[in-house]
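Table S2 (continued). Query chain:
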Amino acid sequence: MLIREGLERNQAIDIRLACLLGCVAGAMNAAAFFAVGFFSANMTGNVSTLSEKLASGSYAAATFYLSILLAFIMGSLLSSLMIATGRKKTRKIYAYALVLEALFIAVIGASDLWIASDWRVSIIVLGLAFAMGFQNAVSTLISSARVRTTHVSGLITDIGIEISGLIASLGKSGGRERALYLTNLQLHLVTCGSFLAGGIAGVLLYRFMGGYLQLLTAMALLTLSLLTITNPDSPVPEQISG
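Corresponding output:
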């Protein structure tokens, strides 16, 4: 799941990745909103709120929403640079990237539990925005943009497109095109469903355990990543293609 990339991947691998990271993204986004009233991964909503704050002259609030957007971008930037630098040296670079994400989320959870100050909200929201941008870049790059775990607006649009294509293909004799629409639709539905299920579980668990939810999430990501890293090393991409 964290080794193969691009054309080496199949539907089953992408679905496992979508389930895992979709649940993580949904849980972190919904728990952050429940805890402090801000979304950490909903960039569409955050940009819309930013525009409203700027238009209404609420510049202090606008600055915070701009910071959320920049934190998400910086997370994506760091993840992309790490993967671009490391992918030629090891096929496990994506697992190492998720180790780093797990550490980010663990620090956020610790801050949520043990920092009782005005900085708590900023650390949780900006930290999770950074982590979700980091994660979204990982899933996008490893799957050639087939799995995008925080991109729900785009996923809902894609679901509509795939259903439209599927309906149009019903009157045609060839089944290959229909199978492709079904495959894409399945992946998008699984990703959205995982995000939704993760959000529900995230809120329920946060109500019960607070910031320990982030620590639990970090432990799950770390365990999965270490299972991949500790397996016998695989050839680097150049060796395989050669």
